[in-house]
């Protein structure tokens, strides 16, 4: 099976407007300013390397889920920034390492079956391709490490690769050491992961002249397994850059919303939820997020930092961040729909113009009524308010209507006997019920 690719299925229009910041002397200095270098091999050598002739570099992504998430997006954007500096990216999707999974600090991963991993390889590959350019002298390539491990025998693996690794060094790797000292320990399968990743770097070095690997700092042990292997086998130096693990200023884990990961796939995390996640960024975090996740230049980001300090209530930096990242991942059209839907929910736009998918995503977290509410025909406003929990009783609901505090689909209801059915529903099924300005609920008459 050969999966090397020189062209994506679809081109992301956002690529056309992306540039690195010309105010920096070189890409290494820009990466440092953006806070994207926590640990690396020799800094002086790396700056010289990245300031010279084009090099080939790579980052690997394991298919441990059907989509990439925001932590992966950090790495993808590093790939893109280096490509904009003239270097040649290799995007590796781990068809073999995905069958094992890199060791977590907490416990063993649940192994997925081969068909699932193969399917996920395709999903991840398509996502990565959207962020890289496959044209020009430094066109990106996609590779799959199953190509060089799938037919490799255990004996050849142990003789040709395993003999270069020392167990004493392997057990000192941070994640491995933590797992060894835990009650669960670590399996030989996960213990061997760093050998496989080292072999990836060696193969890419031989096949493509790859001399740099990027990844998260929590992967540093795996990154250096490759640089060490290349030094021992080939007698030359290779490099690695580890980006910091991003956390919020309050110490909570970044990239989670209501306990769920923020995925790049719209089916797993809607564009509306994605946009709202960025819009809710804390003032203390927003400038750092702009540095990491957008291609805005230093002058633009510093101007937004001044506005955060002087007029935080305007949340201009958050709006800019939400627009930039959502447009990058989901496209400008989807982002405009999300913004229009947000405005329409609060009576500042045409609710009827919001498409069904965006409306469903935008109201997914709202209170709902019990299924079957509209099965018997039109439903009265009083029943709607009570069934959705917006009013605690019929009498309270009637007072809400009489006081002018009730609306359906952004139209005020003044008659307590008014009833609503599919004829008045958005897309023939949805009723957005409101009490006051801020209390909303969604009724799906088809449920």
UniProtKB/TrEMBL annotation:
It is an enzyme of class 6 (ligase). Gene3D superfamilies: HUPs (3.40.50.620), RNA-binding S4 domain (3.10.290.10), Tyrosyl-Transfer RNA Synthetase (1.10.240.10). It comes from the Bacteria. Its EC number is 6.1.1.1. Keywords: Aminoacyl-tRNA synthetase, ATP-binding, Cytoplasm, Ligase, Nucleotide-binding, Protein biosynthesis, RNA-binding. A motif ('HIGH' region) lies at residues 63-72. Residues 377-443 form the Tyrosine--tRNA ligase SYY-like C-terminal domain. ATP binds at residue 256. Belongs to the class-I aminoacyl-tRNA synthetase family. TyrS type 1 subfamily. Catalyzes the attachment of tyrosine to tRNA(Tyr) in a two-step reaction: tyrosine is first activated by ATP to form Tyr-AMP and then transferred to the acceptor end of tRNA(Tyr). This is Tyrosine--tRNA ligase. It comes from Citricoccus nitrophenolicus. The lineage of its organism: Bacteria, Bacillati, Actinomycetota, Actinomycetes, Micrococcales. The gene is tyrS.
